[in-house]
Amino acid sequence: MCPCTDPSTIHEGPFMDWESYYNWRDLPPESPVALLLHWPLSLYDAFCRFAVRSPTLRADVEGFCCIHYLGPEREVNMLPVFSELLAFFPTRHLHIDMIGPGVPTLRDGDLVDLREYPKCSDEECICKSSRRNNKSRSCARVTIKLWRGLYHDRYSDLDTSPHFIFAPNAGLPAFNSWQSTLKLISRSGVPARFSDYCEEAADLALRSLNSACPAAVIHSVQRFKAGWLFPTLHPNDFDNGTLNDSLQLHD
């Protein structure tokens, strides 16, 4: 179902909609691939938008990028879909630490190494051939390590320093445990991005951010055609730049 070969062209920058992504990956409009790839593509979108705000971020992660991914649930059973990130980072090693109570106890500490796309069911497809050309991403690699528990409880156990933090469908106002995590993120100085399902939930999330770290939060909310909203926590301004301190909704 997911793309199984390299794209014909290199893409830089965020996608504005699924149609743009489908065209880039030569997928038919009826393909249900969006049901699986919203996780890695949302992560890629977060990277692009942080890179826009920080001119030095792309240089800092030229060879290696580390992301702390908070609150995984169904993703834990769908880790191969994150191999699609190979198409976006053909010369980088992308490491993702997934931390959350939804990680099964038996998988705590598991490390997954993705270097190829999942193979499709078409026996004639080039993805089955040992001669397929993947030299353009010979250095590309996505590694994912699973950690069971709340971020603020497991933070001292992590052996990586993230370039940014991402929490999809976080539900900040719904769980009191987020307060300790938000305060930790604010102290760390690492930028973080959160998503939610609707405008009301995102607005409540902004209130949670302001409550947990009122002196540090500089926020914006961006609405995408897929319906996701992203409040963004910037403990420190990137490169001493000025970020908009208002609620921004982009249709």
Automatic annotation (TrEMBL):
One family from Pfam that matches here is MSS51_C
Descriptive protein name:
Mitochondrial splicing suppressor 51-like C-terminal domain-containing protein
The Mitochondrial splicing suppressor 51-like C-terminal domain covers 40-213
Source organism: Riccia sorocarpa
